[in-house]
Each structure stands twice: as structure tokens, then as C-alpha cells.
Fold each of these.
Amino acid sequence: MAPPFLLSFLYPRPPPRLSLIRSCLRTISTTRPLRQEEKANPDIVYSASAITAPPQPQGPSQGTSSVLLTYHVNRTPSQQLPVYHLAKRGGNLKQTRIRKISGDVASLRQDLQQALGLREEHIVINQLTKHIIIKGWKKTEVAKFLQEKRF
């Protein structure tokens, strides 16, 4: 009888996490579909701006911005936003931490700073962990901002 580790391919794999499925679907939905003339004649050369431009919505906008975001905040396995309150130095230092950020963290920091009306020194990026740390307890304001951006 063969050792069980050699037959590991026979065991079923768990289904992928929802965050992986969402990121794949987001990548698929942001790619530009081929036009009829591109399918008919693949030798046509288009400019780089035409290729990278996101498709314009056909219907009326529902309050969503048409700007393509350069960052994404993944949700936790329990489908909550990764925004946490921290109390340090015996509870005298109150902070808010945003985790699970992918993409341009500086752009998210700038958008948060403008939306919450914070000074530049009150919102900091930890480059090692890619977390954003905000001075004070701002969990509800940050969660509202992220929900408006449809994260």
C-alpha cells in the first residue's frame, strides 16, 4: 500500500474563497471586450489609450463614480470591512486601522484624507504591512466611505 501523501491528488480541494472569486470577476469585468471589427481583422493596431480606457456605462448612472480606482479593500472571511479600532498606551492613544488593501495605498490615503477632512499627519501608511492608520476612532466614517466606494 502506498503512503497517503503520494495520493493527495485524490482528496477533494475546498472551494475558492469569495474574495478570490470577486477579484477575478473584477479583473474580467474591467477588461475591454473585443469589437466586431477587431474580431474580423486582428491586424488592426489601436492606440494605447483606446485599449486601457474603461468601457463607458450605457444606462443612467446610479450615483457611482466612473473613475477607475487604483486600489481595492478586500473584505474579511465573514464579509466585514477590515476596519478596526486600536487603543494603545493604556487607552490614551486611539487609532483606526484599515487592513487588506491591495493596489495603490497612497491613493486610498489621499481619498480618505479628503473625504474625512483630516490633516496629513493624522493619516499614515505602514509600508511594511500596507495598513493605513488614522489618528482617533473613525471606524464608522471610514466604513461609510468604503461602502460608498462599493467595497
Amino acid sequence: MAQWDLANSVVALVAVLIALNPLFSKIASALYRKLMSWRFPDRATCRQLLWDDVQDNLHSHFGNGGQIFCDVCSSLMWQHENVRRCWEKTATLVFDHLRTRRYPRKKPDQLPLGSSFLRTDARIVLAYLIVTVRCNSFNIIHYLDCRRQGDLTICHLKRPDRVLNLTKEEIDRILEGWPPFYRKSFVSPEGHTLESPLTRHELLKRPGWIVAVGLGCIQPADICVDMDIFKLPCDRVETTLSDVFFGAWPGDPDIMKAIELIRAIKEKGSVAYPDGYEKRALADPYTIRYPENLETLTEEQCVVTMQIFNSMRIDSDQKRILEPSLQEVLSRVCIGFAAVDDYRDSSKNRILVVPPLLQGEKVVYLRDCWTDEVED
């Protein structure tokens, strides 16, 4: 009770000073903020979640542990209610595996004490977009409400459309311009755990990663940083088939059909399909099928196929390994090419254009739904 009497007396004195002289307003505001911070210390701090706090070896919070297709979480889980700390249903729900990593930090004077904020950084915001946004016909800026308050950047995140099962390293690589299909490792329909053929930046220009898409039926992030990375490796898929494969198996009719199909996809566009890898039918024997209907490839055949397209040459041992399942190998190549080509065709709304307020920003504050309604 004594504390409240003191607080009331101070507030009354401040009001009198302001009424007598407007020059006291700045001092009064600082005094009021200090008083409220002393009385309600929780209001004077922000929880913190930085990209460096996200563990390197963990996937985003939701996912299916690297299965062929990533789970799309039920929309009922992601109802974005008008509540305090709504960022608990967005950024921290996706990235904060260890809740103890939300260290409290002093709230800047520009932010109201009556509102909750999460202190984070631009990398968390961009990573959140990579993992959660389904572009379709929406501009990604729809998911961000960014504004400037003094020298601070304030954002409000929309609820996620889905949560892709990506590691921190995979998100970093995609943000650096690697293909949105990139996975450090992936699982084939046969259950083989395969390492990505993309092990260094120079291999972005080789078609090995496109073949990996077909071998693993990899679901891409809907946002891409650089669409120019697709052209050369896509062209090299046909080159590898016509020069390398046709050179190893001269006159093979299956290779000829695969080349014709690749050309048809490039010229006419791949068949539109609404549900991932379903409902694709291009041409026999390279009908794009459900993963459970694919013929079986051995782990060695999968690895060798990626090696051939990465090096764009074949030796006698590699030829011997692929020969028993050559038709299925060619089918997986066409599957990967069709998926990547379809992604390129719908690239208009996929480009990640970083909002000006996030460019070069190391610190970003996420507001909740109540920020504009609560005043000190």
C-alpha cells in the first residue's frame, strides 16, 4: 500500500509540472517510465530469440523427421488469435526448441511498457518465411507488417501456412541463394538415406541436385532467393543424357524417349498439378507416378546417378551399376526435371524480396496483436 501511495503522489506531481510547463514533459515521461519499470519489472524487458540461438543440428520445431513428404500441419493448429504474445504461435513455436533460450533483455525506450515484444533479428524473420510461407498468388509481404518506430524495426508475423522440415543449415543455404529443393540429406522412396550432391557452391551449376529431387521427391520451399540458378543445370540435364548416357548406350530407345520428354517439358511446360507430386502424367514409360509405384533402385544406384550428373561423365563401373535399372533411373531424372521446371514456371510469386526495413537489420522486434491497442 505504501508503494502505491508513493506512486500516486509521484504521478500527481508529474501532472502538475506538465500543466505548469510543457518543457517538463520529456522529463516527466522518463520519470513515469522509470517508475513503472520499477513497479512492474516484467514490462521493462523483452524475451529474446536470435538466429544464433537456434541449434545447428535441429530441424524447425515441426516436421516428419526427414520422410519423403514433409507434413503440412493442420490449419486448426495455426489459428492466429488476437492475443498477447502472439509471436508464441509464430516464430518461437517454429524455431525455439529450448524455451530457456528466450533470454530477457531491456526494452528500448521507444517501445511501450504495456505491450509485449520479442527481440529477434532479420535472419529469424526471413527464415520464418522460408519455412512457413505458401506463396501461391500471395505476395510474401502479406506475411509481414513491418514499420519503423524511432530507430527500431517492428514486425508482426502472420500465422504459418505450413512448417517445412528444414535444418538450420538448409535454411541458411536457401537464404544464400541455393535451390529451394536443397536438403543436406534426404530419404528416397525405397527408404535409402542419401546425402545431397550439393556439397559446395561450384556444384550449383551441375545437374546433380536436380536428379536428387527426382530420387527423393523433395518438396521445395515456396520462396527462392535467386531464380537464375535454375537455367544452366536444367540445360545440362539434357546435355548429360544426350552426350553421356547416349554415348554409353548408343541408340538406346529409353534414353531417346527421356531426351524427348525433357525437351517436351522445356518447350510446352510440365503438367500442372495442385497437390505436390500427384496427378502427373507426361508420357510412358516416364509417367510421373506416386512414390509407392516407383520401381526399386538400390542405394548404390541412387548415389552413382547423382555422381554421373554432377561430373557429367560415366565410367565402366558406373555403367555396370545402372544398366539393370536404366529405365527407372531415367524416370527419376525426368521426375526431378519436371518438378524443377514446374517451379521455374511459377516463379513470379516465389522471389524473396527482402523488405527495405529488414535489409541490414541485426535486431528486429516482433510485436503482438495488442501492440496498437495498448497504451501506457
